[in-house]
């Protein structure tokens, strides 16, 4: 992990043990203590002002909404759509279709003699097509385009580059709007023109999705947002709903693509992992073109272990998610450290995923998740890939379905070896991003 932040704070935590580490005038990083998670990410510790940085056009999406009441009102409408039952009924067929299309693109590249595949860019296309088709009136369908380089990928790169400054400096709220305005005012080069076009396409797609939802009045997440109201009882405005759409596409693309690329990189780099995974997949997918359900895949122990390990290593959001100490203050009981009300606290996934339950934490070891029950309980308690508590990621059921289906079909149909990079280095933005923006594998067909 490069960049200041999580890695540097981790070194201080290693030095001072279970003590809280002061990282700002009024901000503290808490150690990897699973018991702390239950309190700090419970209902009484609200999100801090840092989350105002996620506003788009002055509006906070669900993730950035600090008001408990406003957040609960919107989530109540959206959660049924994101439920496991709905993912199985509506989401899985969509993901199956997108995975099939992705594998067909890989087959075509191999037949053309271009076996080198940038899986990070490919997985971004797969992820944005999947989440958009699942939640919106129409999918984006970037997998149908000639170049597997989704405009959403460009948006992600620009946002991730600016995120560390924006999220951790209250002088730069609404950084998303700032980036868009900058791009539009500086379109004097090919690179900036491409970035401006990507943001323009995202905004146009959100606008189209909203208008299509009005026209169809069908069953999708946009319709659910149109049924939400603000504190004054008025329905969400068009811009508020577009904010939710754009945030949904960003969140639903970046983390899934980074995690899938991490899994693919480590599986392809280890012959033993690759062979063991293929052997297990052949038990339920005897032929290369075999169809398999999500429920069947979820029962495969080694596949499940590889996905969990991929989430642990990729740590989609490595930094601490800041919360505000409630009125009356709070005492960290393990050390007796008292923090006054208004202080900002948080626990980083970077810290949790390198804590004592994880031996040799820098290595990709799926078999660690196949150990005894005691070890599994301890690791699960320190696992925070989707956050913890009352504000956990509402899209985790869909994300897990993507990880299972994409990993299974990819490694049942293809074997691979890593071309670049030699090692994945994660940049410490708000979301973890892969340095260089590329993971290139040489794929070959497996029968």
From TrEMBL:
<dbReference type="GO" id="GO:0016705">
    <property type="term" value="F:oxidoreductase activity, acting on paired donors, with incorporation or reduction of molecular oxygen"/>
</dbReference>
<dbReference type="GO" id="GO:0020037">
    <property type="term" value="F:heme binding"/>
</dbReference>
<comment type="similarity">
    <text>Belongs to the cytochrome P450 family.</text>
</comment>
<protein>
    <recommendedName>
        <fullName>Cytochrome P450</fullName>
    </recommendedName>
</protein>
<dbReference type="GO" id="GO:0005506">
    <property type="term" value="F:iron ion binding"/>
</dbReference>
<keyword id="KW-0349">Heme</keyword>
<keyword id="KW-0479">Metal-binding</keyword>
<dbReference type="InterPro" id="IPR050121">
    <property type="entry name" value="Cytochrome_P450_monoxygenase"/>
</dbReference>
<keyword id="KW-0503">Monooxygenase</keyword>
<dbReference type="Pfam" id="PF00067">
    <property type="entry name" value="p450"/>
</dbReference>
<dbReference type="GO" id="GO:0004497">
    <property type="term" value="F:monooxygenase activity"/>
</dbReference>
<keyword id="KW-0560">Oxidoreductase</keyword>
<keyword id="KW-0408">Iron</keyword>
<feature type="binding site" description="axial binding residue">
    <location>
        <position position="393"/>
    </location>
    <ligand>
        <name>heme</name>
    </ligand>
</feature>
<dbReference type="InterPro" id="IPR036396">
    <property type="entry name" value="Cyt_P450_sf"/>
</dbReference>
<dbReference type="InterPro" id="IPR002401">
    <property type="entry name" value="Cyt_P450_E_grp-I"/>
</dbReference>
<dbReference type="InterPro" id="IPR001128">
    <property type="entry name" value="Cyt_P450"/>
</dbReference>
<dbReference type="InterPro" id="IPR017972">
    <property type="entry name" value="Cyt_P450_CS"/>
</dbReference>
């Amino acid at each position: 992990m490069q960049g200041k932040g999580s890695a540097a704070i981790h070194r201080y935590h290693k030095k001072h043990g279970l003590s809280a580490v002061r990282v700002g005038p009024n901000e503290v990083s808490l150690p990897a203590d699973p018991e702390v998670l239950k309190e700090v990410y419970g209902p009484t510790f609200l999100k801090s002002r840092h989350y105002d940085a996620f506003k788009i056009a002055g509006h906070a999406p669900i993730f950035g909404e600090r008001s408990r009441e406003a957040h609960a009102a919107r989530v109540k409408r959206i959660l049924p759509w994101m439920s496991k039952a709905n993912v199985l009924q509506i989401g899985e067929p969509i993901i199956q279709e997108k995975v099939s299309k992705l594998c067909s693109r890989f087959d075509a590249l191999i037949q053309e003699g271009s076996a080198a595949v940038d899986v990070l860019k490919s997985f971004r296309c797969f992820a944005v097509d999947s989440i958009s088709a699942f939640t919106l009136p129409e999918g984006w369908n970037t997998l149908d385009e000639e170049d597997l380089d989704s405009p959403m990928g460009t948006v992600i790169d620009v946002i991730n580059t600016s995120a560390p400054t924006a999220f951790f400096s209250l002088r730069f709220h609404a950084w998303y709007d700032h980036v868009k305005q900058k791009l539009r005012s500086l379109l004097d080069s090919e690179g900036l023109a491409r970035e401006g076009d990507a943001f323009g396409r995202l905004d146009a797609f959100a606008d189209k999705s909203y208008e299509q939802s009005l026209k169809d009045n069908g069953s999708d997440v946009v319709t659910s947002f149109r049924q939400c109201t603000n504190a004054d009882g008025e329905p969400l405005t068009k811009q508020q709903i577009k904010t939710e759409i754009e945030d949904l596409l960003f969140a639903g693309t970046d983390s899934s693509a980074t995690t899938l690329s991490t899994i693919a990189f480590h599986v392809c780099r280890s012959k033993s992992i690759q062979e063991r995974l293929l052997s297990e997949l052949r038990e339920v997918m005897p032929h290369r073109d075999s169809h398999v359900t999500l429920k069947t895949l979820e029962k495969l122990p080694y596949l499940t272990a590889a996905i969990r390990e991929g989430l642990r290593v990729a740590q989609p959001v490595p930094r601490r998610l800041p919360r505000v100490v409630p009125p009356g203050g709070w005492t960290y009981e393990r050390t007796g450290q008292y923090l006054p009300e208004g202080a900002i606290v948080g626990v980083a996934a970077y810290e949790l995923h390198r804590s004592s339950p994880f031996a040799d934490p820098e290595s990709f070891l799926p078999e660690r998740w196949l150990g005894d029950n005691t070890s599994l309980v301890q690791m699960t308690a320190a696992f925070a890939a989707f956050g913890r508590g009352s504000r956990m990621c509402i899209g985790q059921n869909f994300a897990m379905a993507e990880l299972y289906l994409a990993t299974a079909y990819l490694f049942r149909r293809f074997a691979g070896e890593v071309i670049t990079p030699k090692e994945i280095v994660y940049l410490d933005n708000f979301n973890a991003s892969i340095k260089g923006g590329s993971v290139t594998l040489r794929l070959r067909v497996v029968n």
